[in-house]
């Protein structure tokens, strides 16, 4: 993903020579119950923010000629294989708006994480880059990110921050999340810690750090 270009211009694309080969990107939204976190009742939860960001990324990447897909990691399985074209864009728009995976509240269906990860791995094209949208509120999703990256899928985590520091318990949750993000960075995973500022601003900060 060409995050430097996005930070400069707001245009999202992959780093590739389009006359030779378009990229394949899967946008993966963490829709487990643990991802439905928000700093307060009046703020969209992390899944809502992730779905909105995934929609923007999908449209931008499709417009630059890449094959783009959408998947969820949660109780309600969702998979849209990477493809191109206006019909594919319309299908993605409907999925993000209406699929139970992307509801504003968590599903009550049971979730079997190991089965879901195996299913996802079988579906992923071998050359797929992954953009994972997750608040990283628990260690398990960090392990999933590390495994997908280790399997050869270049992975970037965009992590909407749902934490606050107004109580001791919430301060601890924030510290644990910060530790989790540092752990992922130490494994070579690019992490965008997305706070209250627009995503483009956080990307600009992240790309400055990556370029050092």
User: What structural category arises from helix and sheet content?
Assistant: alpha/beta
Tell me the Rg in angstroms: 16 Å
State the CATH topology: Rossmann fold
Sketch the topology as an H/E string, one letter per element: HEHEEHHEHEHEH
Quick one: CATH class? Alpha Beta
Strand element count:
6
As a percent range, the share of strand residues is 15-25%
Low-confidence stretches: none
Distance between the termini: 18 Å
- Provide the helix percentage: 40-55%
Architecture, according to CATH?
A: 3-Layer(aba) Sandwich
Count of runs of 4 or more consecutive helical residues: 7
Arithmetic mean of pLDDT: 88
Number of domains: 1
Morphology call: globular
Domain DUF58: 1-139
Protein name: DUF58 domain-containing protein
InterPro entries: DUF58 (IPR002881), vWFA_dom_sf (IPR036465)
Organism: Halolamina pelagica
Provide structural commentary.
- With 212 residues, the protein is an alpha/beta fold.
- It has a six-stranded mixed beta sheet with strand order 3-2-1-4-5-6, sandwiched between helices.
- Helices cover 43% and strands 17% of the residues.
- The protein has a single domain (22-210), classed as Rossmann fold, CATH 3.40.50.
- The model has no long low-confidence stretch (mean pLDDT 88).
């Amino acid at each position: 993903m060409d995050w430097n270009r996005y930070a400069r211009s707001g245009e999202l694309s992959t780093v590739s020579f389009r006359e030779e080969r378009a990229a394949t990107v899967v946008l993966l939204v963490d829709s487990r119950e643990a991802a439905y976190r928000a700093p307060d009742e009046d703020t969209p939860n992390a899944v809502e923010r992730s779905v909105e960001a995934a929609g923007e990324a999908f449209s931008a990447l499709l417009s630059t000629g890449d094959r783009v897909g959408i998947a969820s990691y949660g109780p309600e399985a969702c998979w849209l294989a990477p493809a191109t074209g206006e019909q594919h864009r319309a299908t993605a728009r409907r999925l993000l708006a209406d699929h139970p995976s992307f509801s504003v509240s968590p599903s009550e269906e049971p979730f079997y994480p190991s089965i879901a990860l195996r299913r996802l791995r079988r579906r992923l094209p071998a050359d797929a880059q992954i953009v994972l949208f997750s608040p990283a509120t628990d260690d398990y999703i960090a392990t999933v990110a590390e495994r997908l990256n280790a399997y050869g899928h270049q992975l970037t985590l965009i992590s909407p921050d749902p934490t606050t520091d107004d109580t001791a318990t919430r301060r601890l949750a924030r510290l644990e999340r910060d530790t989790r993000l540092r752990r992922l960075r130490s494994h070579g995973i690019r992490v965008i810690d997305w706070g209250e500022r627009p995503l483009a601003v956080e990307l600009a900060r992240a790309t400055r750090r990556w370029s050092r």
